[in-house]
Structure formats: C-alpha cells, structure tokens
Amino acid sequence: MVDHISLSAPFDAHVHLRQGNLMRLVTPHVHQGGIRMAFVMPNLVPPLTLPEHTIAYAKELQALAPDLHILPSLYLSSQLTPALIREAKQGGIVGVKSYPRGVTTNSEGGVGMEGYAVYDDVFAEMERQDMVLNLHGEVPSDVDGDGTCVLNAEERFLPHLFEINRKFPKLRIVLEHCTTAAAVEAVKSLSDNVVATITPHHLHLTIDGACSTPLGFCKPLAKFPSDRAALRSAVASGNPKFFLGSDSAPHPSRAKLPALHVARVVNAQTGHDEDEVALPSPCAAGIYTGANLVPLTAEVFERGGIPLERLEGFVSSHGRRFYGVPAPEGQEVVLRRTTKGARRVEKAFGYKTDEGEDEWVIPFLAGEEIGWEIAA
C-alpha cells in the first residue's frame, strides 16, 4: 500500500477567495491545503470587469499568501472590449471567466439572453492573445418555458461550447467544474485546446448527497451516479484534458444553513404580543474544500476507486501544461497516509465578519476522517 505521495507544486485551476475578512481567512488556506498555484475567480461584488481591478485584487491576495502563485481572471461582461483584452494580457491576466446570468453566486452581470455571439470580437482577440476562456457551463433555468432546470442546464449549455470552438478553433477553453457524462464526452470530442476541470466534491457526491443537506448544495449541482462514474473514469484514464479545479467556494454558515427567525413583537394595532416570523433565505451555492484540498482529493480518489498514480497529473501536470506554467523546483508537496482516526476534517473555521460578528465556514466532509495529510 502506498503511504507517501510526492506531487509537483499542485495547481488549483478554479478557486474563490472572496473579499474582506472572509478573504483574509481563506486565502492562506490555499497554500495550507497543498496548493502552490491558483486560478482565482472574479465574481466579487462588484465583479472584476476591468484589468486594473483584477490586478489590484491579485496584489491583495498575494500579500495574504506570498508563497502562492496567483493567476488572476477577468469577468466576462458587456464592458469588455478587445482593447481591454490586450491590456489584460499585458498585465499578466491569463483568463476570462464567463458566468450564465443569475445561475450562481454574484453572476447577475453574466451572459443572459443576448447569448455568446455578442462577444465574438472579444473571443477573437483572446484567441490572438492566447488567453483562456473559462466557461461556467450551464444555461439559466426556465422550468416553465423550455424545461431547463439544474439537472439538465449543463447538457443544454454544450451547444454553446461547440459553437464557440467552431468559430474560434485556436481559442483555449476550459469547461469549468463539469458534472455530466455528456460534458465529459463533449470535451473528449473536441481539440486539445478544449479541456475541463473537475472538482473533488463532484467526484464524491451524487444528487442524493447534494439534496440531503445544504452543505452539499453547489452549482452546478452534483448529478446521477452514472455521471459521477463518467467523471471518475475520465480522471482514472489519465486523460490530460481533465484536471483539478476545486471550485472551493466559502460562504458564511448563516448563508449555507439559513435559519427561521422568530421574534416576539408588539402588534401596533392591537397592542398584543405576537410572533413575527422571518422565513429563511435560499441556501448559498458552494462547497468549501480549500483548507484540505490536496489530502481531500487523495481521499476522494481512494473512496472512488481512482488510482493514486493519477493524482500527480490531476492536481499538477495536466493543468500546468494547459496554462503553460511548469512546476518550479523545490515546491513538491508530500502526502503521508495517516493512522486510522488520526486526521479529521475541521468542523468549522471561525472568523469575524466585516461587521464584527462571529461567523464560521463549514468545510466539505466536516468532522469526517480522511486518510491523508501533508507531510512536507
């Protein structure tokens, strides 16, 4: 049995690091979790639609995690122009992230009914500049119209992927956090400049786990056992088109576990005390894996029957090759198998909100035993 694994400067190709005190909590966790390079999402409030804002954000993150190589990204919006793409390239920005409008956290400014053709000039310039287009591969739900819902939104996005690739055959494209067998087959069928990221939680969860607790709720939603099997098979095959993008997405516990609030108030008309009920808000979409990412990924591999010899490609070499950033020497991460019961995922990470209130981020598999830890 393998009890040590050496990995070459692991790379997370999709991570959310937020803002304010939450950012200050989770940004150092990335390196702690075994990652040495991270592609960071731009869906802040407001979103990072201009190169100067993205570059300033990257500097802020770098100050919090000086040993982490930050790859910043821009938010695809109507503000983006070919000239801004050239400016972004010169400023070291490597990718542009596309969100479907209203589908996930802070995506209200994303792509809506106008579709993707309106961005053809931007995509053409990205192709010339050799930048990466990162696609959240879903379309907005239209349950009462065409029947689109969270379970088929990814598959119904795939024609957009094919069309963008047809128009811009040299544009490097990442289908982010793919969850379906259809998405896996689509990526396999396209040229080598079209790849996909896969999250550890989608290698572990199915729709049952995603719906049984708010802590398993994310976008895109985990799908059927057959879809999970396709993801596992893609990773187990060693196909370099599929690599780690954790989509680690921290939320305050009150957003993940919204509660019913009941207050005793005086009715102004009757003068009597009565209960005032505030119904829970919708649960935030997102699963937090950053603080334990590389050991957690090894654990998910073993639980899912994925050979551990595929871990190096999945967490390092495949993604680094696609982004053109070789692993630097001296940044190896060594995993060590733990003795039974010796290592459990933290139940929560506490912090003060920007308003000074106590809050917590609850990680994926909170409180569960995992069999790996970082040795060096």
Question: What are its keywords?
Answer:
TIM Barrel; 32% helix; globular; DHOdimr; zinc; single chain; alpha/beta; metal-binding; three-stranded antiparallel sheet; 376 residues; pyrimidine biosynthesis
Describe the structure.
- The chain has 376 residues and is of the alpha/beta class.
- The chain has one domain: TIM Barrel (Alpha-Beta Barrel), CATH 3.20.20.140.
- Helices cover 32% and strands 19% of the residues.
- The chain is built from 12 helices and 16 strands.
- It has helices at residues 20-32, 51-64, 82-90, 120-129, 153-167, 181-189, 200-204, 207-212, 225-236, 253-256, 293-303, 311-323; strands spanning 4-8, 11-15, 37-40, 69-71, 73-75, 95-98, 132-136, 172-176, 194-198, 242-244, 261-266, 273-278, 332-337, 349-352, 358-361, 372-374.
- Strands 5-6-7-8-9-10 form a 6-stranded parallel β-sheet, with helices on both faces. It has a 3-stranded antiparallel β-sheet with strand order 1-13-16, with helices on one face. Strands 2-3-4 form a 3-stranded parallel β-sheet.
- It is globular.
- The model has no long low-confidence stretch (mean pLDDT 92).
CATH superfamily: Metal-dependent hydrolases
Query: What do we call the CATH topology?
Result: TIM Barrel
Structural class: alpha/beta
Q: Percent helix among the residues?
A: 25-40%
Task: Quote the distance from N terminus to C terminus.
Answer: 20 Å
- Give the total of domains: 1
Please provide the count of β strands. Answer: 16
Individual helix count: 12
Order of helices and strands: EEHEHEEHEHEHEHEHHHEHEEHHEEEE
* Rg: 21 Å
Largest sheet: 6 strands, parallel
Which stretches of 5+ consecutive residues score pLDDT under 50?
Answer: none
Give the percentage of residues in beta strands.
15-25%
What is the 3D shape?
globular
Spatial arrangement of strands, main beta sheet: 5-6-7-8-9-10
CATH architectural group: Alpha-Beta Barrel
**CATH C-level name:** Alpha Beta
Q: State mean pLDDT (0 to 100 scale).
A: 92
Protein name: Dihydroorotase
Keywords: Hydrolase, Metal-binding, Pyrimidine biosynthesis, Zinc
GO molecular function: dihydroorotase activity; metal ion binding
